[in-house]
Design brief:
By secondary structure, this protein is mostly helical. It is built from 6 helices and no strands. The longest helix has 19 residues.
C-alpha cells in the first residue's frame, strides 16, 4: 500500500476510534448517518461516491476527498469516471479548488499503485 494511502487510513482510523470512544450520542449518530447515506439505495454506491467527491471538492475538504476517492476506487470506478466528476467539481467550485484537484490526482495515483 502506498505510504500516502496508508498514512491517511491509519490516522483516520486512530482518530475515529478516539472520537467514538467519548461515547457522544450526537457524534455517533452523525457517523452512522454518514455511513448509511452512502449505502445502495435509489442511487447506486458509485453514483453516491461521485456525488460525495464533487461536494467534498467544492467544499475543499482534502480528508473528505481522499475518503471518497478511496471509496470510489473500492467501488470499481475508473480514473476517467473520477476525473470527469472532478472536472464538474472544478467547474462548480472555480479555480480555488485546483490545489485540491492536484492532491486528488496524487491520491488517486497512490490508490492505483496500491493495486
Amino acid at each position: 500500500m502506498s505510504h500516502l494511502v496508508k498514512e491517511f487510513n491509519e490516522y483516520r482510523s486512530k482518530m475515529n476510534e478516539n472520537i467514538l470512544a467519548d461515547n457522544n450520542k450526537v457524534i455517533k449518530r452523525i457517523f452512522n448517518l454518514d455511513t448509511n447515506a452512502y449505502q445502495e439505495g435509489a442511487l447506486d454506491v458509485k453514483t453516491k461516491e461521485l456525488l460525495g467527491l464533487v461536494a467534498s471538492t467544492v467544499l475543499r475538504c482534502d480528508d473528505c476527498i481522499k475518503y471518497h476517492l478511496e471509496s470510489s476506487h473500492k467501488a470499481g470506478l475508473n480514473k476517467e469516471e473520477v476525473v470527469e466528476a472532478l472536472s464538474i467539481a472544478t467547474l462548480v467550485g472555480g479555480t480555488i479548488v485546483i490545489p485540491h484537484l492536484r492532491r486528488a490526482y496524487e491520491f488517486w495515483d497512490a490508490l492505483e499503485e496500491s493495486r
